[in-house]
Amino acid sequence: MQLDVLLSSITLALMGMTTFTYIANKISFNFPYQLKPFEKYAGALPLFGSLLGIICGYYLNKNSIPNAEINYKILLIVILFAAIGFLRDKYRMSKRLVFVTALISASLSIYFYFPGISLAKLAGYTCFIMVLLVCLKISSLVYEMPFILISTSAITHMLFMFNSSSYNIILTLIDLALATYSVATIIHTCSGYRILISNSGILASGMALGLVSLIEPTGNLILFSFFIPAMAILYPIAFISLMIVTSYFGNRLHKTDNEDKHGWRWSLNREKTINFSALIFLCLNFTGLLVILKAPVFGYLCLLALLILSMTSFIKTFARKLSIDEVKDNKIDILGTKIDAIMPKEVLRRIDAHVSKPDSGFMHIITADSLALVRTDKDPEFKKIMEKAEMVVPDGAGIVWAADFIATPLPSRVPGVALVGDICENSRNNTNYRIFLIGSKPGIAEKAAEILKEKTNANIVGVEHGYFTKDSEDELKMLQKIKDSKANIVFVALGVPRQEDFITKLRSFANNAVAIGVGGSFDVISGTLPRAPKWMQRFGMEWLFRLCLEPKRIYRIMEIPLFVINVMRYKLNKD
Question: Would the pTM count as exceeding 0.70?
Answer without folding.
Answer: no
